[in-house]
């Protein structure tokens, strides 16, 4: 018996090649464009096995879907990158502002309130002012201390927020007190 296979990717081709090697049949493999050998053969003498092999498809729909998904993921990545950059910039600005406020409270407000209290006590001791002036100066000193503590708390919280936005320890970007 003679078997003709059109296309070289038929699953039965390997089995037919094995039978042809054993001498049990004659095998002819055509690529689908060759029609002359088919016309020359006696139809009673051969069996025709065909396999459709798409020559032009090449998975264009899958490729297009993958390209679209790649572009979508690039846009998602770019959006996330911009959002993270904005979060880091915002956290850095808040951290610098809070650190500056804490330094100002420690370097300016608290010493001025302490100096005001010392002047109020001296004035009261000299008999030039009443006790209410001293109490008012003490209240201003306590308010300055509360503001300094709140500024330090805000600076620490904003530094932690900056590190959270960065995803690591923050470098020294905060204003530091002058060592004059």
Topology:
Blueprint: E1 2-6, H1 13-21, E2 26-30, H2 36-40, E3 46-50, H3 60-125, H4 131-166
Parallel strand pairs: 1-2, 1-3
Q: Which secondary-structure class do the elements indicate?
A: mainly alpha
Rounded average pLDDT: 80
Distance between the termini: 106 Å
Our count of helices gives: 4
Number of strands: 3
Strand order in the sheet with the most strands: 2-1-3
Give the uncertain stretches in residue-range form: 50-55
Give the H and E element order: EHEHEHH
Report the portion of residues in β strands: 5-15%
Whole-angstrom Rg: 44 Å
* Major sheet attributes: 3 strands, parallel
Overall outline: rod-shaped
Helix content: 55-70%
Q: How many domains comprise the coordinates?
A: 2
Task: Give a description of the structure.
With 180 residues, the chain is mainly alpha-helical. The protein has two domains: 2-50, no CATH class; 63-166. Helices cover 64% and strands 8% of the residues. It is built from four helices and three strands; from the N terminus they run E-H-E-H-E-H-H. The chain has helices spanning 13-21, 36-40, 60-125, 131-166, and strands at 2-6, 26-30, 46-50. The protein has a three-stranded parallel sheet with strand order 2-1-3, with helices on one face. The N and C termini lie far apart (106 Å). The model is unreliable at 50-55 (pLDDT under 50).
Task: Write a concise keyword list for the protein shown above.
180 residues, three-stranded parallel sheet, 8% strand, mainly alpha, 2 domains
């Amino acid at each position: 018996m003679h078997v003709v296979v059109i296309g070289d990717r038929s699953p039965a081709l390997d089995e037919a090649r094995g039978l042809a090697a054993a001498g049990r049949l004659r095998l002819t493999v055509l690529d689908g464009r060759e029609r002359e050998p088919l016309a020359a053969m006696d139809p009673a003498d051969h069996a025709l096995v065909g396999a459709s092999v798409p020559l032009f498809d090449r998975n264009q729909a899958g490729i297009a879907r993958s390209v679209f998904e790649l572009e979508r993921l690039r846009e998602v990545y770019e959006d996330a990158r911009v959002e993270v950059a904005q979060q880091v910039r915002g956290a850095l600005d808040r951290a610098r502002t809070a650190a500056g406020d804490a330094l100002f409270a420690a370097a300016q407000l608290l010493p001025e309130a302490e100096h005001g209290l010392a002047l109020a006590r001296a004035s009261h001791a000299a008999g030039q002012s009443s006790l209410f002036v001293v109490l008012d100066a003490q209240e201003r000193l306590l308010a300055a201390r509360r503001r300094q503590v709140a500024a330090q708390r805000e600076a620490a919280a904003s530094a932690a927020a900056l590190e959270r936005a960065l995803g690591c320890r923050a470098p020294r970007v905060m204003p530091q007190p002058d060592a004059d």
